Amino acid sequence: MSRTQGSAASQGLPSARALEGRRDAHSAQEDRMTARPNYTDAIAHKVHGRALLQMGFDLVEVKHDGRWSVIEIRSDGAGRIFSRCGKRQGEFTTDLRPSQTIVLLGEHMIGTERAKACESLIVVFDCLHDGRHDCAGQQLWARRLKAIDIVAKVPAPIMTMVQQWDLDDRSFAAIWQDVVIEGGGEGLVAKRSLDPYSHGPHNWPHWIRIKETIEHDAVVLGVDGGSLLCMVDGVQWRVAAGVGDLSPEGLIGLKVTLRSNGVHKSGKGRHARLVRVHPEQ
Question: Are strands 39-43 and 207-211 parallel, antiparallel or unpaired?
Answer without folding.
Answer: parallel
